[in-house]
Amino acid sequence: MKRHPVLAVAFIVVAGLLPVSVQADPNAAPTQNRTLSGDDLTIIGERIRQTGAQLRADLKEARARLEAQKTHEAEERARKAEQAMREKRAQEAREAQAREAAARAAQAEKERREADRVRKDPAEKARRDKQAALLAQSAQKDEAARRAEAKRKAAEALRQARESTGARAFD
């Protein structure tokens, strides 16, 4: 078991505070010495053991309180961090909603202006419709031209294949 220096210091302090009856009697003759009996030493030893046990118990209790305090502080920090995270997410959600609302408002304004412009300018609408029809017609002509070109290339490839292998290969 690891001995702590705090215990040793506490033991020395407590031992120094205990009343010790070994001190010389000031009225006694210089040749007279007082000695402690076995019972006195047993009582003193028991008292020291009790004090040591109490110090160990107090130290154990102080450690438990410290650990409880650390745990409580860690829980409090975690709770505050979670609260801050929730507030941050809520703020981000509010900002995202505000951005979406602004985008919808801008889109609605753009559509309203376009509708106003179209309503005010029927000639513009007719021009756009005509342009769309021309684009569709042009796309159809381009598709027809691509198909005709593909047929011509296929026929040419077939003709070249017949010439190179002879007409019998395809009959």
Strand percentage: under 5%
Q: Low-confidence spans: pLDDT under 50, at least 5 residues?
A: none
Task: Please give the alpha-carbon distance between the first and last residues.
Answer: 105 Å
Largest sheet properties: none
The oligomeric state is single chain
Radius of gyration: 52 Å
Helix percentage: over 70%
Number of strands: 0
- Name the helix and strand elements from N-terminus to C-terminus, one letter apiece: HHH
Mean pLDDT: 84
The total count of helices amounts to 3
Main structural class: mainly alpha
- Give the overall shape, derived from the CA principal axes: elongated
Question: What does the model show?
Answer:
The protein is mostly helical and 171 residues long. The protein contains three helices and no strands. Helix 1 (5-17) packs across helix 2 (38-120).
